[in-house]
Amino acid sequence: MSSLHTSPKHALGSPLYYNSDSANYFSDCASVSSFESIEGRLDAPGVYSGHSTPIRSMNSSRQFTPEERLKLKEMERMLREAQIEKQVLLEEQEKSKLREINHLAEEKKKRELLERQLKEESQMREEMIMNQVKMREKTNSIQARPLTRYLPVTNEEFDLKTHIEAAGHNVDVCPHIAVTRTTCRGYLIKMGGRIKSWRKRWFVFNRNKHSFLYHSSDREDKRPKGGMYFAAIQDVYIDHLRQNKSPNPLLTFCVKTTNRVYYLVAPSPETMRIWMDVIVTGAEGYKEFRK
C-alpha cells in the first residue's frame, strides 16, 4: 500500500509506476501537448493539414514531372506554329494588297492607252476626212479647167494636124484616128444620155463647120445621131471621179458642154490624148477663153 501513496513527483518521475487511469491521464496530456505541437507545425510548407489532401509548395524551386514538361513543349511548339502562321497570313495579305494595287495601276495605264489611241484614231480619221474633202475640191477644181496646155483657136489658117504633131503626137502611126488640116475622125465608145449604156460611135471633129458630131458608123452621108458645136464645148478632161462604170476607166475622158457631160472611151492611151488636144482647140465655150 505504501507504494500506492507515493508522491506525485515520484510517481511521475518513476518509470516503474503504471496505472490505467493514470495512463489515460498522461495520454490525454500528451495528446494535448502533441496537438498543440502539431498545430504549430500545420502552417509549415509541405506538411499535411487537417484535411486528407496535401498542400504542395508553390515556390520557384518546384520540379515538373516529365509529362508536364512534354505538355509544355507541345504548347510552346503550337504557339510558335501559330505565330508563324499568323506571320504568313499577314504577309499574304500584304502581297494581296500589293497585287491589287498593281492590277489597278495596270488597268489605269491600259485605259489611258486606249483613250489615247482612240483620240489619235479620231484625229487621224478627221484628218483623212479633211484630206479627202480637200482632194475632192482639188479634183473638182482640176476638172473645172482643161488638162491640156492649149486654148481654143479661132484662126481660120490654123492647121490642126501640124498643131497636134507639134504637141508631140505621131498621128501617122496611130491607127485609131485620122487627122487632117481641118478635121479629125475615129471611133469612140460613148455613154448614152438617158439610158446609161455604152455604144461605139464614129466621131467627126470639123473646124470648118465648128462641130463635133457622131454617127452610128463611118458613113457620114447620113444624118448624124448627135453631137455639139464649138460654142457649147466648155471643158475637156480625164474622168478622175469615175462616177460611171466605164468599159475602160483608164481611157475614159469627158467633154463638158452647156447641156450635159459626154463620157467617151478611146481605144488606146495615145488616141485619148490626141482626141483631147483636138477637141480643146474648138472649146469656144471655155469660160477662161471668153474672159
TrEMBL record:
InterPro entries: PH-like_dom_sf, PH-like_domain, PH_domain. Residues 181-284 form the PH domain. It comes from the Eukaryota. Residues 72-131 form a coiled coil. SUPFAM superfamilies: PH domain-like (SSF50729). The keyword Transferase does not apply. Pfam families: PH (PF00169). Keywords: Coiled coil. PANTHER family: FI18040P1, PLECKSTRIN HOMOLOGY-LIKE DOMAIN, FAMILY B, MEMBER 3. This is Putative pleckstrin-likey-like domain family B member 1 isoform X2. It comes from Stichopus japonicus (Sea cucumber).
